[in-house]
Amino acid sequence: MRSQLTLFVALLAALLGMLTAPAADAADPIRVLIVDGQNNHDWERTTPYIKGFLEETGRFNVYVVTTPPKGAKPAAWNGFRPQFEDYDVVLSNYNGETWPETVRNEFEAFVKRGGGVVNVHAANNPFPDWPAFNDMIGLAWRRADFGDRLVLDDDGKPVRFEAGEGPGAGHGPRYPYPVVVRDRKHPVVEGFPAEWMHPADELYHGQRGPALNMNIVATAYSDSSKRGTGYHEPMVWWIPFGEGKVFTTVLGHVGRNQKQDEWPMRCQGFQALVTRGCEWVATGEVTLPLPENMPTAEEVSLAP
Ligand code: ZN
Fold first, then answer.
1. Which of 33, 172, 177, 289 has the fewest C-beta atoms under 10 angstroms from its C-beta?
2. How far is the CA of 123 from the centre of ligand 1 (A)?
């Protein structure tokens, strides 16, 4: 009798424990879905690389969904139905043909309901005809007449150019340049050096779009002597969309056949932006520590 009672109490305690356990622990892995499949960059090599350095932190479970190749028949797209709701973050390593309308609608709904998005490099290039996407990224690789342009002047003040005024999207030759933190209190860059040396990379300029609700996190000076604009161009920014956050960095060019020694994705600053960016869009907080060997204002620092 007594043993039965003990068993009953133990079962009850276990059941209560299950009922009162928090639904999601703060340390639960964050579920990241990388979207790739078309890109004028080397997505076949960079997706596993990004997945690798995300998972190395121990904070993420990373999944990948790949679109049909460029030029595939419409029927091939029937198999591309990512279940965005199963993830906390969608990381775009995609620059290609537009997605089916259903997928676009589901993506919008995911972000509106609080889903996080992280865009890497050319991920701000596609979908010119998708208004919600342009709103989410604010500034995109578009022609000068597509929309506004937003840069900072030498005093750090925002300067807005209207559509058609000044250059459209472009970049000069790749060269190493300092990236300057503009929002020192932003959790993703908290503790970063005020500026850090980034290895040779494309420096996007003349990005165009609605540029509304832009929160510029970091910029780089686009040197006129290197076919740049003479302004401080946004390199990292975020935009709220519904309940969700969309975090974009145009750093990280990796072309086909580019030797891994020369990948700017190896920059410890870049990797900290992406890992901490994913955590922040998912939870609103950053717990991931900075790498021990962050770059400094003078010296680049590359992951092994
Ligand atoms: Zn590029």
1. 289
2. 10
**198 three-class SS:** strand
* Nearest by Cα to 96 from 41, 47, 151, 176: 41
pLDDT at 20: 44
CB atoms within 10 A of CB 245: 23
The string of pLDDT tens digits covering residues 208-223 is: 999 999 999 999 999 9
Gap from CA of 46 to ligand 1 centroid (Å): 12
Whole-number Å distance, alpha carbon 94 to ligand 1 midpoint, is 12
The more confident residue out of 16 and 85 is 85
d(CA 50, CA 238): 20
For the chain, how far is it from start to end, CA to CA, in angstroms? 64
pTM beyond 0.70: the answer is yes
- Phi first, then psi: give them for residue 13, nearest 5 degrees: -60, -40
Instruction: Characterize the bridge pairing of strands 232-241 and 195-201.
Output: unpaired
User: Tokens for 239?
Assistant: 């935009």
